[in-house]
Design goal:
heterodimer, A: mainly beta, five-stranded antiparallel sheet, 11 strands, globular, B: mainly beta, seven-stranded mixed sheet, four-stranded antiparallel sheet, 52% strand
């Protein structure tokens, strides 16, 4: 089976740094995605990790440790527009592109 | 730019009705998916399709069926709508494997379906 855990909700202050964690227990591993979803909108792709380490994209970075079944999304210099849900998704079915999604973390950025 | 279009943003139907949700993509992707999204439960896979006329059950297929007659269109059908099918429905597409790259899914804007 698959189990993907994320905190339900986090709050942070504008300009600060926030780390959103994702832990997973899956039968096999074939990559981890992070998506951002604003209220009432479609999820949009942020980053993916397939090898251990840190992937940086501007203000957003994502880290993966396959041995620990752990990833985090790091958001720097938070802006009000970063208030959204952040979805962690793990691919564990060999040969397909079907990820399993966590329940998402709702991030609230306040002034 | 990738475009996934869902036919309706909001839809209200009655219990027992047959409901069609349509999704059209313009990227020539082989893979298409239907999810439902509920508070506290996240995205759950209902059905997916690898190719025209091909379909596979996801994690929660009960009460749903799908149709893929053309590559660009993937329809979700609620055979006899029930109140517990009130939800946000999201369509997604992804490019076929073989590129060696980790392709992300592209999502439509969603259809918020209410069954009364």
């Amino acid at each position: 089976g698959q189990n993907i855990d994320q905190p339900t909700e986090m709050t942070a202050t504008e300009g600060a740094i926030v780390q959103i964690n994702c832990t997973y227990q899956t039968s096999g591993f074939n990559g981890l995605f992070w998506y951002q979803q604003h209220a009432g909108e479609a999820p949009t792709f942020l980053s993916y990790n397939v090898l251990d380490g840190l992937e940086e994209k501007g203000r957003f970075s994502s880290f993966l440790s396959r041995s620990k079944g752990y990833s985090y999304l790091l958001l720097k210099e938070l802006q009000m527009k970063d208030s959204a849900s952040y979805l962690c998704a793990v691919r564990n079915r060999g040969g397909s592109y079907i990820p399993t999604f966590g329940r998402g973390t709702s991030l609230i950025v306040h002034p | 730019d990738v475009k996934v279009t869902q036919s309706s943003r909001y839809l209200v139907k009655r219990t027992g009705e047959k409901v069609f949700l349509e999704c059209v993509q313009d990227m020539d992707h082989e893979n298409m998916f239907w999810y439902r999204q509920d508070p506290g439960l996240g995205l759950r896979l209902i059905y997916f399709s690898y190719d025209v006329k091909m379909k596979e059950k996801g994690d929660i297929p009960e009460g749903y069926s799908v149709s893929r007659e053309k590559k660009e269109r993937f329809s979700l059908i609620l055979e006899s709508a029930s109140t517990n099918q009130t939800s946000m429905y999201l369509c997604a597409t992804v490019q076929m494997a073989g590129t060696g790259e980790m392709e992300p899914q592209h999502f439509g804007d969603g259809t918020r379906l209410s069954i009364l």
